[in-house]
């Protein structure tokens, strides 16, 4: 652009770092530019929490070793553990088949949930109807296999 020059003072990069375009091109974002990120304990498989990311949060997560999210309520980036000390150290990051959800496998130090529980789902089980998989296989021509135990509705 004529007449426009990038500033080079040796401290601020001329171009801020951006998410690799090859990765950005695979992402599907919502209207706000966000996508959900599921955090999972890498060795036990525990589903720890769900947060939101934009391209920059994903870039930071991929490059800093610390899971970084976008807070929709505070409208700012937050590095998990910065205030609580309950760090999430990144082991791997995967896109799902549609490119609209990210799986972040981490080593979660301390509780993942701000309420103090290990995961955001601990102790928050909802009543469900459970079907015996063997009976479901036998009844494959029926519309619904018979529940072995049902939720109180
Ligand atoms: Zn929580």
Report on the architecture of this protein.
With 153 residues, this protein is an alpha+beta fold. It folds into two domains: 21-121, Phosphoribosyl-AMP cyclohydrolase (Ubiquitin-like (UB roll), Roll), CATH 3.10.20; 123-153, no CATH class. It has three helices and eight strands, in the order H-E-E-H-E-E-E-E-E-H-E. The chain has helices spanning 21-24, 55-64, 133-138, and strands at residues 35-41, 47-53, 68-71, 76-79, 88-95, 102-108, 130-131, 147-149. Strands 2-1-6-5 form a four-stranded mixed sheet, with helices on one face. A hairpin with a 6-residue loop joins strand 5 (88-95) and strand 6 (102-108). Its main location: cytoplasm. It catalyses: 1-(5-phospho-beta-D-ribosyl)-5'-AMP + H2O = 1-(5-phospho-beta-D-ribosyl)-5-[(5-phospho-beta-D-ribosylamino)methylideneamino]imidazole-4-carboxamide; 1-(5-phospho-beta-D-ribosyl)-ATP + H2O = 1-(5-phospho-beta-D-ribosyl)-5'-AMP + diphosphate + H(+).
Structure at a glance:
With 153 residues, this protein is α+β, with helices and mostly antiparallel strands.
Top keywords for this entry?
elongated; zinc ion binding; Ubiquitin-like (UB roll); 8 strands; alpha+beta; hydrolase; amino-acid biosynthesis; 2 domains; 153 residues; four-stranded mixed beta sheet; two-stranded antiparallel sheet; binds zinc ion
């Amino acid at each position: 652009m004529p007449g426009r020059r990038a500033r080079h003072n040796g401290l601020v990069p001329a171009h801020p770092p951006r998410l690799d375009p090859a990765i950005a091109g695979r992402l599907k974002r919502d209207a706000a530019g966000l996508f959900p990120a599921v955090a999972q304990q890498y060795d036990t498989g525990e589903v720890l929490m769900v947060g939101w990311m934009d391209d920059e949060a994903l870039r930071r997560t991929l490059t800093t070793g610390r899971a970084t999210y976008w807070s929709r309520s505070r409208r700012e980036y937050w590095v998990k553990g910065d205030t609580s000390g309950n760090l999430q150290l990144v082991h791997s990051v995967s896109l799902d088949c549609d490119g609209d959800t990210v799986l972040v496998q981490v080593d979660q130090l301390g509780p993942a949930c701000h309420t103090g529980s290990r995961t955001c789902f601990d102790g928050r089980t909802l009543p469900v109807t459970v079907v015996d998989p063997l009976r479901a296989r036998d009844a494959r021509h029926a519309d619904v296999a018979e529940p072995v135990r049902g939720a109180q509705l």
